[in-house]
Amino acid sequence: MSFTKTTEQDSNYNHLEKMTVVELLNNINNEDKSVPIAVEKAIPEIELLVNQIVKKLNLGGRLFYMGAGTSGRLGIVDASECPPTFGVSHDLVVGLIAGGDSAIRKAVEFAEDSTSQGWEDLQHYNINQNDVVIGIAASGTTPYVISALDACNKNNIITGCITCNANSPLSNVAKYPVEVIVGPEFVTGSSRMKAGTAQKLVLNMISTATMIQLGHIKGNKMVDMQLSNNKLVDRGTKMIVAELNISKDDAEKLLTKYGSVRLAIKNYNNGNE
């Protein structure tokens, strides 16, 4: 099966240093417009992966994201947003990056080239057959990710991936590959740009669709969100006012008492208030 890294091909633009600021911005924006279209083409693949994730999480499993560099950081960002947004445990969606937590801020040289560290990192979490592991790599060639997914396959653990090259080694090892082919970057090889945007969009879709399927949204509201700041407390109060048609003061009292929009609404409707 042929494999060409379109993410490494020459940019469609040249002499970038001669462009004005507005030319640079418009050209970058024009390239970015193509990303959602590329993601749309991958929706059937994303659907298959999400269905597997929902199935396993309903059995008590967890979701792991693994990547290096930008890809790893994007996975960590998505994982870290799940608890405050959906009120789930920090252990339900876990982001791992080659080189460990220090690599979140600063690149760790050659960390992505390890063919053993990825599986070792997963073993720290007692990875098991109820879990799902998604490898994230724009290139589709990152050894840290590929080797970890290969080990998961050998241990009957569901594997998926998000990559931006067709027929990559990563796609071939993942049981549920998602390929979003965005083409050459504006700056040749800078996959933090369109490829990174594509990965972020897919991660948003995966985690949001999964959490809705698991019941963490009511209507279109984040009723399980963590009330970790004044903005979210105010949002929660407004949700309760709209749902129960009560005063803001009463809604605030309910929210303070139960500490959760869902529980406040549930107890009120059950006649406990």
Give a written overview of the molecule.
The protein is of the alpha/beta class. Helices cover 48% and strands 9% of the residues. It has a five-stranded parallel beta sheet, sandwiched between helices. Helix 3 crosses helix 8, helix 9 runs parallel beside helix 11 and helix 10 crosses helix 11 (261-269). The longest helix has 20 residues, at 194-213. The N and C termini lie far apart (64 Å). The model has no long low-confidence stretch (mean pLDDT 95).
Average pLDDT value? 95
**End-to-end CA span:** 64 Å
- What structural class results from the helix and strand content? alpha/beta
Q: Count every helix, treating DSSP H or I runs of 4 or more residues as helices.
A: 11
Uncertain spans, ≥5 residues at pLDDT below 50? Answer: none
β-strand amount: 5-15%
Rg over alpha carbons:
21 Å
Shape: globular
Helix content: 40-55%
Helix-strand string: HHHEHEHEHEHEHHHH
